[in-house]
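Recap slide: Thioredoxin-like fold domain-containing protein, sequence and predicted structure.
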Amino acid sequence: MSNVITHSSKGGKKKNNAVVVIGSILAIIVILFGLNYFISQKNKNNTEVVDKVANNQTTMGDPDSKVKIVAYSDFQCPACAGFGIVFPEVYKNIIEKYGPTSLSLVYKYFPLTSIHPNALLAGYSAEAAGNQGKFWEMHDILFEKQSDWGNVLDAKSKIEGYARDIGLDMAKFISDRDSGEVQKIVNDSLTEAKKLGLTHTPFVFMNGLEMTNLSLSAEDIQNRIEQELERLNVSPIN
C-alpha cells in the first residue's frame, strides 16, 4: 500500500489573507493621501481667491480686514440681489461693533450668461461705473431695480438711465463700458469662477472657505461673521 501524503492549505490561506490585509491598508493610505491633496489644493485655490482681489475697486472696506468676504455674483440673479441688498446693513453693524478693520467684501463677476442674458452687460456697466468711483452705487441700483431691467430687450438704455441717476459722466461711462479693458476685467472674473469650479450664485467665501447653506437674512449672515471674528479672537470695541 502506498502512503498518500496530503498538504494542508492553511499556510496558503494565511498568506492570501495577509496579502488582502496589506493591500487594503495600502488602498486606504492612497485614498487618504489623495483626499488630503484634494483638500489642500482646494484650500490653496480658495486662499488665492482672497489674494487676487486685495486692491480691487469693487472692495467694500479695508482689504486687510480680519474677515474677508468674497462674493462671486450675478447682477441678474435674484438670490444675488437678496445678498447684495442686505449685506450693506451687515457691514455697517459689524464695523460699528468691531471697528473699521474687522470686515471687507469683494464683489466678483460671475454672470450666468446661459440663463441671464443681460448679466454680462450689467457687469460691464458696474465696472465702468467703478472707473468713476461709483461701483457700489451702480451695484445697489442694479440689484434694487433688477426686475425692471433683468428680462427686457432694452436693458442697455435702462442701465444708462441708472448711470445718469447716479451722476456719471455719460460719455466716459459708455466708452468704458464698451472698452476691451473693462470687458476683460469682467470676463477674467468669469473665467476665474469657472476655473475654481463654482457652481451657483451667489458663491460666497469667508476667509477663503465657502459659506455653505447661506441664508439671505441679515441676522444669519451677521451671526456667521461674528462667529468667525470670535474664532479669530477679535473683540467688540464697544
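DSSP finds nine helices and five strands in the chain.
The chain has a mean pLDDT of 86.
(End of recap.)
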